[in-house]
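Entry type: protein chain
Record version: 2
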Amino acid sequence: MTYPMPKVRGTLTPDKVLADLTWLRVGGPADWLFRPADVEDLADFLRDLPAGVPVFPIGVGSNLIVRDGGLRAIVIRLGRGFNDISVEGCQVQVGAAALDAHVAKKAADAGVDLTFLRTIPGSIGGAIRMNAGCYGSYMADVLQSVDIILRSGEKMTLTPADLKLCYRQSDLPEGAVLIGAVLKGPQGDPQELHARMAAQLATRDATQPTKDRSAGSTFRNPAGFSSTGRSDDVHDLKAWKVIDNAGMRGARRGGAQMSEKHSNFMINTGDATAADLEYLGEEVRKKVYDSSGITLEWEIMRVGDPG
């Protein structure tokens, strides 16, 4: 795809292989990768980009499969200038590129409880977009406002109600890039908050394949959830359980495998292609449906063209 590119102060890289930017280390090239220098650089770029040219914001690629044929779009990745974290009282101002774990630790230092973010992989922008959560807490519980840049280059502030947060999803305007947010958590003792996070990390490492190449949970839990992200039914099924019941723990396709340690984690054992991963995921969905009548929904985002 060819089109004139606006002048930028950041970096523009053509034909960037996206495997380098995803945790699963698969994926073909994007037409362009844009790393803006700052908010103004991003706004100017989006405003001056020819209408109709698709853009695709990416965080740290922790919840993403890019197909082997790559992505016919301009991928936008935020970095320095978009990762600041500041705390005032119970409110935490964060850039979209700030890592969830760093936000949790800095908030705890100041006595603000955002500990649930400590074990969530990725950046705040992705966590908001997916209404990420664990240990009974979700972004919907702590989010106060978000700042975005529209495809027109206009800056806008949205409320959680605007985002229509629900289980593992949000509603952002098409082509918008999330640049920052304000979070608010309850107060707590810094020492106790750090101790809680240490315990959470130990539990995660004992139950999840944290040493392997994965993208976190592969499928959403097969149940209805409220608009806050909380379960409406304490008896909701878990994805790992129905995968186990279908006999798919440890299942393989090429270099892709459903983890033996946690069957809802798909891993790249070393030489998987995006096609291997997606094919295996679809095979799991079929087996689960055949055995239980439940249709699993992907939690991992899959984008791009087949190889």
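Comment: Residues 85-192 form a domain with the Uridine Diphospho-n-acetylenolpyruvylglucosamine Reductase; domain 3 fold (CATH 3.30.465.10).
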